[in-house]
Amino acid sequence: MLRRSVIAIVGLGAAVLAAPLSAQTAWPSRPVRIVVPTGPGSSLDLIVRAMSDKLGARWGQPVVIENKPGAGGMLGMDIVAKAGDGHTLGIGFNGPVAFAPFLYRKMPYDPARDLVPVVMTTSQPNVLAVNADKVPGKTVAEFVTWAKAQGPKLNYSSLGNGSSAHLTMELFLAEAGLTATHIPFNGSPPAAMAVAQGEADATFMVAPALLAHVRNNKVRMLAVSSAQRPDSLKELPTLASAGYPNVESLAWNGLFASPGTPDAVVARINADVNDMLQDAAVKALLDAQGLTAVGGSAADFKRTIDGEVKRWGPVISRLGIKLD
Q1: Does domain 127-233 have CATH number 3.40.190.10?
Q2: Distances in Å between the alpha carbon of 54 and those of 45, 49, 160?
Q3: Which residues contact 248 (CB under 8 A, 6 or more apart)?
Q4: Same topology for domains 30-123+251-319 and 127-233, yes or no?
Q5: Does 6 have pLDDT greater than 50?
């Protein structure tokens, strides 16, 4: 009888220790960590910081932001995939979520299995931008003419291997009949700076990191990669109208959790972030940076990711891009 009691007590203790987060009375029960897989000052960093204080106040726990750039965003997303604590989120984007399985022979996580889509935060077009001093062209056609004359000297920067910026440029080069050397960086701020300083001739990326250099007349924006232009970029033509209808891409991002995060917690984070995206101050900050708030359900976000996988997988295979 005593032996049975001991076994029962031990079993109960093990059950308590192994109890899923859903068995807890409240979430969050400790600080919430949001991993940003790009550096400070990037658009992903800006999005999270725009919401963090308000989310922390709503949740009654601090929101701790941790920048972990590297490996095209995979370094940070791997932390999220393996966290398993119910209190770690990550803001992911196209590259390490939808593109990486087609680009890398080996990944430290499986995006479809190890990352739980929670909510899309923003989606915006990439912008084709060039160094304003080196590149004389003020239109896409003029840039292509100049680029062809450069031959093997042409180069471009991106915010990382396998990013939407990288793949959009490779697709554009293929469509325009150009070749160029790729210079990858960890995040958009250094990639934009490379263009501003003339280290790189051109780039594709979202507008926020470019705007200061545009105002300083160091960078010139030529076109957007979306079918529709956001209000903040109405003065730019689309690549389709410039003669490249196949070069269409959006740089989306959103929050992910690790496997095992209860549905109720995912639903709560989703609802709270949707509210934040409609907050006047947050929306004004995002709008000023050319970032279009999206929101929607977790299921909506998953459908977007699935669509990107189906669309870009064949494109990556056709372009023959492989990364180590």
Answers
A1: yes
A2: 15, 10, 30
A3: 225, 226, 227, 239, 240
A4: yes
A5: no
CATH for 30-123+251-319 (4.10.910.10, 2.70.98.10, 3.40.190.150, 1.10.3470.10): 3.40.190.150
Q: What is the distance between the alpha carbons of residues 236 and 133, in angstroms, rounded to a whole number?
A: 19
Q: Which of 24, 64, 41, 34 is nearest to 192 (CA)?
A: 41
Produce one character per residue of 154-164: b if its CB has 16 or more CB atoms within 10 Å, e if not.
Answer: bbbbbbbbbbb
C-alpha distances out from residue 146 to 135, 138, 157, 220, 243, Å: 7, 11, 17, 15, 16
Least confident of 10-14, 130-134, 236-240, 301-305: 10-14
Mean pLDDT for the chain overall:
90
State how far the Cα of 114 lies from the Cα of 117, in Å rounded to an integer.
10
Q: Per-residue pLDDT for 323 more than 90? A: no
Helix axes 263-278, 298-319, angle to 10 degrees: 90
Listed by start position, the domains of the chain span: 30-123+251-319, 127-233
